[in-house]
Give the backbone structure.
Amino acid sequence: MNVLEAFNDVKQPLPFVHKMEVAERPFESANTVADSGVIVKREDKSPIRISEYIPNYTPAADSSSTLSGSVKIEEEIRSNEPIANNIDVPMDEILANSKKCIHRPMVVVRPVPKLENDFDEDPLKRNSVLLPIFKELSVLDRFNCALVCKKWYYVSMTSELNDRLDFTEANITSTLRKFVVTRQPKVLILDWCNVHREDLSWILCRTPRIQALSLQGCSWAAVSCLRSCICPGLTSLNLSFVPSMDDVGLMHIMSAPLDHRPGLGNRDLTCRLSGLRTLKLANSKITDNGLRAIVRILSNLSILDLSQCHMITDVGIEILTQIHSLSTLQLTKCAGITEHSLKVLAKCKNLTYLDVRHTKLSKTAVNKFAAARNGFKVLDTRLIVKKLDKS
């Protein structure tokens, strides 16, 4: 017999509900609930709805103290108020088996408040202890130290430590990219790093404070992203030992950007590297034509490194004399230059450092060049340096 038939056969008031025989309880188990002598079968993961099995019943005034557990639960459901001493079927069990989804309240998640003892120290006093230690660590070590605690993290964010970040031969990951962007360095060194074009572009467009960038030994694909309007206004660039760096590649990065940001007028239509004052192109394949492009675009250049550029001749050196602000010129292992280059370099009035070691120039010609210029001396037979004024 089912439950509804059991209630329909009830002829007496609810306190005298006819109880099922033991033989009629084949499904009484952990999935059944005993409720005042009536066995209610519970389906798998289904809620208990007692109101479906309890008829409308109003107890007499003299029987209020003898209410069964089912009537108590029904009153609790209808009145939405808990009734004391309801131990027959716990309400937690009913709610636990309910199919109704109860969501967490949508509230604002606020950060954990600072502890009073955590930052009561004077920041200058705290930095005076940890800052000298952090200066002796490498960038990767400071990156790991920043994960120790809040105090170490705040010390690692000091501008004295982050103005120059050196990641030589490091593996550039997404975590290191965020590390660079959060610290906004002025000098970024990525020498001999396996950095991809996408990674370098992501960093450059988010670090406008970078003034000096070193990509020594990086791939040409990464270097080519410098021809973009997102490139910061660099004053120093090191492209030494970059594979496939020739006249075409040099003219490519010194040309106008391929992309454009709307709303900035003609600002993005000019070369982003025109403000360079230091350029290093050691061991590259540039020729005199490349030097002609440098003179045309980088008119404010002060330091130029052309070491091991074997394809440069005296013609290219004579072209460089058009840069009046040139003060440092490195021509180490430039086999294509002769003593004629020294004669034309005499026109550079601001030249204070000339390195012509491991070239075909004779010692006599080098000494004669230094003697003709007041205040110069020769070091290591072919390194011409202007003497510093001690006063």
